[in-house]
Amino acid sequence: MKHFSKQFKELPTIKQLERNISAILLNTYLPLEPPRPVSFNMVPVGGLHIRSAKLLPTNMQKFLDQANHGAIYVSLGCQVPSVAFPPEKIKMFLGVFGSLKQRVLWHFEYDKLPNLPANVMVQKSMPHTDILAHPNVKVFIFHGGLFGFQEAVHYGVPVLGMPAFPDQHLNIKKGTAAGYALEVNYLTVTKEELQSSLTELLENPKYRDNMKRASRIFRDRPLPAMDTAMFWIDYVIEHRGAPHMVSAGLDLAWYQFYLFDILGIAFGIVVLPILGFLLVCRNYNSAKKPKTKAKQN
Fold first, then answer.
1. End-to-end CA distance of the chain
2. CA geometry: angle at 214 spanning 209 and 220, to 5°?
3. What is the greatest pairwise CA distance in the chain?
4. Structure pTM?
5. Strands (DSSP E) along 143-264, which ranges?
6. Among candidates 239, 229, 250, 243, which has minimal Cα distance to 22?
7. What does the alpha-carbon distance between residue 31 and residue 152 come to, in Å, rounded to a whole number?
8. What is the DSSP pairing of strand 103-107 with strand 71-75?
9. Left (φ > 0), alpha (ψ -120 to 50) or beta: where does 131 sit?
10. Strand, helix or coil at 177?
11. Cα 45 to chain center, whole Å?
12. Would strands 120-123 and 159-161 be described as parallel, antiparallel, or unpaired?
């Protein structure tokens, strides 16, 4: 707020802003998240950033078109840059890639690497989604970020995840549980582990079948993600903030919001009869006891 205080005479507080939210655009969509109860103004628009695929640069287009056995795309992002790997790790990766019959596109921070196998292309600038859209791309090796995960599901490409941060681990775990991803530790992965993981993803059809099924669910919507977001933004503007969409929970007292009033009633219904019964039993037992006479001197 301090950055805008000089531009406006009066600014709403965070509490006031929270009470004025008409629509919430959620960066998720089935099947990446399980069904859950949401209010009417929470709109899932996962994949909002994914645009229609464009033609690749000539060298990449030719490289992938001629990949008769398929191709693997590697992009570990800026958080875990490939150039940060020790030389022996890069050599190990290149050794595994060179032993494959598939071609490999590696998004690397350098345009050239020594002893580069003939089936591997490295480049520091690659059109991410356009590569994933190519039908010959069979596996996507990446860090497990949400945007990249949505892109892989959108285009139906099985994933080999090398997560570095908690949210990335969570995304890859979901993919592993759904049967269209595998995970390796980028710090400790060995030649044998990388080779076996890639072989499993490339040769076991269940990963591609599961990913294609997930892709059909992810893409099957009444409107594309961007159109859905624009519709609800226009709707809120058209209806002057759409106050009728604001959650009624904002007007509840805290004890009502957390259902303490309902819990109190339920507690009373269950506990009070028990207490009453115990009190009656106690009085009944007291009445049955014989009264002792006091001694007189």
1. 88
2. 125
3. 122
4. 0.81
5. 159-161, 181-183
6. 243
7. 13
8. parallel
9. alpha
10. helix
11. 12
12. unpaired
Q: How confident is the model at residue 112 (pLDDT cuts 50, 70, 90)?
A: confident
Q: Report helix, strand or coil for 82.
A: helix
Instruction: Give the tens place of pLDDT for each residue, 130-176.
Output: 999 999 999 999 998 999 999 999 999 999 999 988 899 999 999 99
Q: Please, are residues 183 and 163 in contact by the beta-carbon 8 Å criterion?
A: yes
Tokens of 151: 């892109």
Q: What is the DSSP string of 18-70?
A: HTT---EEES--TTSS------TTEEE-TTTTPPPP-PPPHHHHHHHHT-TT-
Tokens representing residue 213 in the block = 């099924």
Give CA–CA dist 186/97, Å, rounded.
15
Q: Cα(126)–Cα(105) distance, rounded to whole angstroms? A: 9
* Contact indicator for 153, 50 with CB cutoff of 8 Å: no
- Whether residue 194 is predicted with pLDDT greater than 60 in this model: the reply is yes
196-234 burial code (b ≥16 CB/10 A, e <16):
ebbeebbeeeebbebbbebbeebbebeeebeebbeebee
